[in-house]
Amino acid sequence: MSIDTSTAQPAVSMADAKLHLRVDHSDEDSLIEALVLSATQMAEHELQVGLITRDGTAGFGGVDDVPVVIKQWILVHVGYWYANRETAAEVKMEALPYVGRLLDPFRTWA
Fold it and tell me: Rounded to an integer, what distance in angstroms lies between the CA atom of residue 9 and that of residue 89?
């Protein structure tokens, strides 16, 4: 089974994303919106379920209905991508072990 993530809608509001990023200007709104959508699509792919209900895809409902732990997973990824925009880094970065586990309660284990 595969979900069409191309029709995904952002599962975190712009206001929440900017608060998480500590951004108080609108200069990078397009970038932040793209990062939120990308992380939402990634979460949908990981979970194989829609987050926002839309035509042809059942989800949790609207943005306010998405579980907070899924939103946190999205915000952690948005924060990382916002701070690290290059494809390579001089500093060795290590994954935080808890981040991937945030989605576990919503996974369908086969």
Answer: 30
> Which domain covers residue 11, as residue numbers?
5-106
Phi, psi dihedral angles at 57 (to 5 degrees): -135, 120
17 vs 43, 58, 78, 82, CA distance in Å?
16, 24, 8, 11
Task: Tell me how far the alpha carbon of residue 84 is from its chain's centroid.
Answer: 16
Cα–Cα distance for residue pair 46/20, rounded to 1 Å? 22
pTM of the complete model: 0.85
pLDDT in tens, 56-83: 888 999 999 999 999 999 999 999 899 8
User: pLDDT, tens digit, for every residue of 22-50?
Assistant: 999 999 999 999 999 999 999 999 999 99
Contact 12, 34 (CB under 8 A): no
Task: Enter the tokens of residue 67.
Answer: 């579980």
93: domain CATH number is 1.10.3230.30
* Cα–Cα distance for residue pair 18/22, rounded to 1 Å: 6
